[in-house]
Amino acid sequence: MKKGKVWKYGDDVNTDVIFPGKYTYTLMEPSEMAKHALEALDPEFVLMVKPGDLIVAGKNFGCGSSREQAAACLKAAGVQAVIAKSFARIYFRNAINLGLPVLQSEEASDNLRAGDEVEIDFAGGTIMAGEKTYKFPPLPDSVIGILEAGGLIEYTKKKLQNQAKT
Description:
Elements: E1 2-8, H1 15-18, H2 30-34, H3 45-48, E2 54-56, H4 69-76, E3 81-84, H5 89-98, E4 102-104, H6 106-111, E5 117-121, E6 126-129, E7 132-135, H7 141-149, H8 152-165
Helix pairs in contact: 4-5, 7-8
């Protein structure tokens, strides 16, 4: 289980808001990308985010262009998970591939507030905030494996190494 503070945003937070397109071809390192995460939406975010914090949003988080940097910058900034009512399909896949947990929970999205302290049980499918518990579909073992490995590339490398040993 991991604890973190909530950063709260609304519906339709698009990839250009998460990571400005003007940096797409100039910043290559995730640590540099992190310095610009959500800068147009919330200039305080990059100054105040702490490792383990979470983003809670409304519907259609990550809509817009397919930009891996939109997931990479949040992960590099220390965000432990994004909780939303729904995700754009490509953002969802990019986040998992990069090892950033994305959790769908309408109830948590509606009820969690900025600054709330939250604890997540990824395997159990629960988000706890004080006395309240919110559910999300438990992550499949394969997704947990990808997240624990730090992303799909590392997960695949480990699987191939294990296969080579047998």
